[in-house]
Design brief:
146 residues; alpha+beta; Alpha-Beta Plaits; four-stranded antiparallel beta sheet; 4 strands
Length: 146
């Protein structure tokens, strides 16, 4: 592949360069698909007393910089129950379970993250990894949808 790439640059051949671009795009799509296949979602379900709601949310707001800076973390969110406002769910998408447990937890971002959320460790009701089994979008998510 490197030889083709060098020749495309040397000859400036639009056809070879276009083919190379398609190949690189396909390779990138395969890499992203492989990452999505390994991606896991960690759910941490907390029960937080009313007097600690703001402190809990503040701890996770502060810890957000540690999650944002971790290359293993793809996305995160903190949700509060509507029917049961003492219930909070932290949802974190990781590149893989291995990336979470051995990359993040053994990396530089974990100690400051854990220090911020550790006071609420005893409030955890569930902390598990899940693999997305099915997904989709509702009509309301499409532009102009109802």
């Amino acid at each position: 592949m490197a030889g083709i790439h060098r020749r495309a640059l040397r000859t400036r051949s639009p056809g070879v360069a276009a083919a190379l671009g398609v190949w690189v795009t396909l390779a990138l799509m395969q890499t992203l698909a492989a990452k999505e296949k390994n991606m896991v979602v960690e759910y941490i379900r907390y029960e937080i007393p009313p007097a600690q709601h703001e402190t809990f949310l503040g701890a996770y707001r502060a810890a957000a910089t540690d999650l944002s800076g971790a290359p293993e973390c793809l996305h995160y969110e903190i949700s509060q129950g509507i029917e049961e406002p003492n219930n909070f769910v932290v949802r974190i998408e990781w590149q893989s379970q291995e990336a979470h447990e051995h990359g993040f937890r053994q990396g530089a971002h974990f100690p400051p993250f854990f220090a911020k959320v550790k006071p609420f460790f005893s409030n955890i009701r569930e902390m598990k990894h899940y693999r997305v089994a099915a997904e989709g979008k509702g009509k309301g998510s499409a532009p102009g949808g109802g």
